[in-house]
Design brief:
12 helices, 5-stranded parallel sheet, 4-stranded mixed sheet, alpha/beta, single chain
């Protein structure tokens, strides 16, 4: 595999800013491009972006004007913007490009594989990154890490190229034993934590103490385990307990992305969480009453925006 030198990042939400800052510092300004359309690129340049109060010095690039395929392409958009991002970046994917998605849920890797070829896609979970974003300003108390891997039986040459690059630039990552299980385990966390926080209008603190919000979170998590098992994914109550411990250790005044969406009156990623679980539960004839209720409540909240 070709050594990774050039990087493109699509999406400058909270995680996109964190990745861009780390990679720009590690790989060099000239090698890392923030890809967007001309209008958004001009906006970023004019208004600026900050991380923990420090103005970020990024190389912004109009995707349509770029011509050379990139060595590494990182998607950090919301799921609703993934297809548009793919369409805008097709010409930047070459024979040796390594692609990862930092999106939540369990479907973006499959979409990217169907589009560009499974051999180009390294599976990824962004984790341990409590963030808050207001406008172009991001606050993050812990930059966390990426969990990386490829499905069993898939050629791992791109995974090895990516980890060699991350080692060189000092970007934190871990290699879980089974990335597919790890992806589903993160879905346990997101489906419970994000949705309960949005519906009950609370931060992590409200999920850490006994009450309806915490009960809803844990119930939704257990339904994800049930559906995962039906899909052949080996999760258990231990996964619920581990994520609960992580959530209970987060700053009480912080909150997950869907809580931030609710406060900002933005559309959330509910389809990636209870939407996914409800569809798969129906396929297997399973009852997921808590996720049914959370899904309907989120839609009601969003309908009032």
């Amino acid at each position: 595999m070709k050594e990774i030198k050039t990087v493109g990042i699509v999406g400058l939400g909270a995680l996109g800013v964190i990745f861009a800052q780390q990679l720009t510092r590690g790989a060099g300004y000239e090698n890392v491009k923030i890809l967007a359309d001309a209008k958004r690129t001009a906006k970023y340049r004019d208004e600026g972006v900050t991380l923990n109060g420090e103005r970020c010095v990024f190389q912004y690039a109009d995707t349509a004007q770029e011509r050379e395929p990139l060595d590494f392409l990182l998607f950090a958009v919301k799921f609703s913007g993934l297809q548009d991002a793919i369409d805008r970046c097709r010409h930047l994917v070459g024979p040796d490009t390594v692609i990862i998605s930092a999106l939540n849920g369990v479907f973006s890797e499959q979409i990217l594989s169907d589009t560009f070829g499974a051999e180009k896609v390294v599976w990824c979970v962004a984790q341990k990154m409590p963030t808050r974003k207001e406008g172009n300003h991001v606050i993050c108390s812990n930059f966390g890490e990426l969990a990386l891997g490829v499905p069993a039986g898939q050629d791992d040459s791109r995974l090895r190229a990516l980890t060699a690059f991350f080692d060189r630039v000092g970007f934190p990552y871990v290699l879980p034993e089974d990335i597919r299980i790890h992806l589903w385990s993160k879905l346990v966390c997101n489906t419970g934590c994000n949705q309960a926080a949005m519906v009950f209008e609370c931060g992590y603190g409200g999920l850490q103490v006994p009450g309806p919000a915490r009960d809803a979170m844990l119930s939704a998590m257990r339904e994800v385990v049930l559906v995962a098992n039906a899909e052949g994914i080996s999760l258990s109550e231990r996964d619920v307990e581990e994520w609960d411990s992580i959530i209970c250790a987060l700053p009480a005044d912080g909150g997950p992305s869907m809580r931030q969406d609710g406060k900002a009156h933005r559309k959330s990623e509910v389809e990636l969480f209870s939407g996914t679980i409800r569809r798969l539960a129906a396929k297997h004839g399973l009852s997921v009453s808590m996720n049914d209720w959370l899904y309907q409540r989120v839609l009601e909240i969003e309908s009032a925006y």
